[in-house]
Amino acid sequence: MAPLPVYSKPFGSQQAERLLWRAGFGPRPGEAKALAAQGLRAAVLSLTRPQAEQLTGPAPTDRGAPIAPYDAFGHDHLWWLDRMVRSNRPLVERMTLVWHDWFATSNVGVGSQRLMLNQNETLRQGALGSFRDLLLSVTQDPAMLLWLSGVKNTRFSPNENYGRELMELFTLGVDNGYTETDVREQARALTGWRGRKRGDNAADFVYDTRLHDTGSKTIFGKSGTFDWTDSCRLCLEHPSHPGYLVGKLWSYFVPTAPTKATLSGLKALYGNGYRIQPVVEAILQHPDLYDGPRMVKPPVVFTAGLLRALGGGVDTILWARLGAGAGQRLFYPPNVAGWDDSRWLDTATFRGRWFLASLAFTGKPPQGGSSDPAKLLDRARAALGGPTLTTATSTALLDFAKKNRSSGAAVVESALRQLLVMSPDLQTC
Questions:
Q1: Which phi and psi (to 5°) does residue 210 adopt?
Q2: Could you read off the pLDDT of 82-100 as tens digits, one per residue?
Q3: Strand pairing of 193-194 and 65-66?
Q4: What are phi and psi of 218, to 5 degrees?
Q5: Of 26, 167, 326, 393, which residue is 20 to 30 A from 38 by alpha carbon distance?
Q6: pLDDT tens figures, 350-386
Q7: 142 and 210 in contact (C-beta within 8 Å)?
Q8: Are 368 and 410 in contact (CB under 8 A)?
C-alpha cells in the first residue's frame, strides 16, 4: 500500500490558522505564527499528543458568580465553552465535540446535567484513544442508556433503539451491511441494563443478568449467546466498519470526500487496534485539508475562537442563549443523528452569530487614533489577532471605511471589527 500523501507546500501562518481552526478553536494572538515555525508534522503532533491539561485565564462566571454546571440551566454550556476557550489541548476538546455529535445525546431525553457532563468526560477521556474502548464506554453510559432506551430493553420486552443506532449511526452507516433481523437480534443481545429514569447517580445504572436474554442470537450471520459486549464487538469486526469510521471522521476535518487510495490508507492506519490518533494525524497532514475548500465554522467553534482571539472569557448566561440562537446549544443536539453540518448558516442563525460577536466586543472599545481607512482596518484586524484576509474581504472593508470616514474613527473601527468577524473569511476556515 502506498503511503498517505502529506502536504508538501510551504506551511506558513495561513496554513497554521486553518489547522488550528479545523483541529481546535482557532489561534490566540501570535499562535499561528509560532505553530508555523514548527513545521507541519511537529505542529500536528503538538495537537494530537498534547501536554498535561492546563486551563489558562479566569474561571467562568455568570453575572459575577461562579457557575453551577450540574444544576443551573445553561451553565453546562458555559462550562464546556469555557474549556474550549481556556484549554491548552484544543484538539482534545474538538474531538470531544466530534464524539458528542457522533454519539449525539440530548439532555431533553436524559433530564440530568450531571449525567450529561459525566458522559462528556467519558468522550474526552477517549477522544484520541481506541474507538473500541470508547464504544464500550458509551454503550454502558447512563446518559446513553436513558437517551436510547437501554434501561427499557429487557428480555421481556426488547427495545431496538440503541441496537439500530449502534449500526446505523455509530459503526456501520445507514443500510450498510445489516438487516432488520440484525436490528432485532442486536436488541436481544443488548438487554440487561436497568436504572432510574431521573437518577443523577451513575451508580444507579447497573447490568442485571436477570433482565438479559441468554438465548442464542444470530447477528451478521454469526450465532451465539451474545451479550452487550459481543454486540459492540460484532459491529467493530464487520467489514463495513473501518471504511465508515474513517470516512465519517474525515468529514469533520475536510469537506470533500477522500479518494479511494486515501480511504484505503486511513483504514490501514485504523487497523485491528481501532486507533483514532493515527487516523487524525494523517488527516491533519493531508493535502486536501490545506488545498481544499473552506468549511463553515460550527457556532460554538466560532464563539470559542472569537473569545480566544480577543482574550475574553465566559462571564454570562447569554453565551448559552445566543449559542442556541446561532443553532448550537451544547448537550442539546437536535436528534440522534446530531447537528447537520451542511446547514449551519441561514438568515436566522446568522443573526445569532451577529449578537455573539457583539457580546464578545462588550467592554473592548476601539483603540482610537488615525482615521486613515487602511490604519482603521489594521487596528480592527489587530484586535482579533491579525487573521489572514482574502483580497475581496480587505477591499470591501476598506471601501466601507472610506465611505464612512466622516462618522469618526472610533465608530468606523467598531463597525469594521463587527463586519470583519461576520465576513466569509472569519465565518469559514
A1: -70, -20
A2: 999 999 999 999 999 999 9
A3: unpaired
A4: -120, 115
A5: 393
A6: 999 999 999 999 999 998 788 999 999 999 999 999 9
A7: no
A8: yes
